[in-house]
Write a structure and sequence with these properties.
- This protein has 63 residues and is mainly alpha-helical.
- Helix content is 49%, strand content 0%.
Length: 63
């Protein structure tokens, strides 16, 4: 029983390896892909806006 389970698991692992190696396109996208632009796109979010307002003195955080 254990031997047959090991054979089935081994076969599935081999089939998965073959299927993944047969992919023609990468599933990983570069962080500088035009849709992401991680290194080149200017940062504009709530944290940046709050930091700018703190630096201008418009907002003060209470601790």
């Amino acid at each position: 029983m254990r031997e047959s389970v090991a054979v089935i698991v081994g076969g599935l692992a081999a089939a998965l390896g073959i299927a993944l190696s047969a992919q023609s396109t990468s599933i990983w996208v570069s962080r500088d892909h035009p849709a992401i632009q991680y290194s080149t796109r200017p940062v504009r979010d709530e944290v940046v806006t709050l930091n700018e307002r703190i630096e201008k003195g418009e907002v003060q955080l209470d601790f």
